[in-house]
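Reopening this one. Same input as before:
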Amino acid sequence: MGMKTKKTLGNTITYIVLIIISIIWLFPFVCLFLQSLRSYNEGGGGMVEYLLPKQFSLDSYKFLFSQDSQFVRWYLNTLVIAAFVAVLQTIIVLCVSYALSRMRFKGRTFLMRFWLILGMFPGFLTMICLYFLLKQFGLTQQGAIPGLILISVASSGMGYYVTKGYFDTIPKALDEAARIDGASRARVFLTMIIPMSKPIIIYAALVAFMAPWCDYIFASYVAFGYSDSYNVAVAMQRWVWTNDYQGYFTRFCAGGMLVAVPITILFICLQKYYVEGVTGGAVKG
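Same output, byte for byte:
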């Protein structure tokens, strides 16, 4: 068997494996989309009838935007939380990462190691403590939205690892030259480092946006039964807990499709910068 034949055979096998993996990965999303188009009153049947509705309908999507549903409010709640967290958390992460990358001060190494160890513990271990703390300031139930923003932003500095690694790849000679010319550290950071760090900024913003957008545990705990403060994850979970499971399941699927739209658009538009940010930040730790 010649080298060219081996290469062709290897590529063929690789493509077949990738196609199979893609089908497996896309199958749940296709099912979710098909179920969102199922008529509200259509009953179940065999496997084929369940996967492929007998008649397609937009009733579930119409319900989401009707007066009988609070889906628009829940969607806006989630969008507000995710947007504020993305902006504030990105600013904090950039500032902390720049300080740890460029400055040398007493306790720096200990602080980095302490944050690294502390970040290994899952955040939900502190749920009870955080709930009672937020309750003292009126940031639960009616005030759940600012409370969730505060929870996500408060500890964001500990996520400096990838961003600091990216800053480490930028030559420090640029900082030193600017400092000799009289520029302050803030000016160096804002006018030199930030313009050169577009990939890592986009990476940090995407990661910050995704966390509250998909959050269920903290959101359900802080809102605690006050429906006006629900995000879409909590609200849609309440739907599938109702007695009318068959009807609300189609609405759940329709809501899931709409929830996936912003994340999908962001990743499609910013995929190039996202990959550059991850690979650039992984070069040095």
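So the earlier flakiness isn't reproducible anymore. For the record, Residues 245-281 form the longest helix (37 residues).
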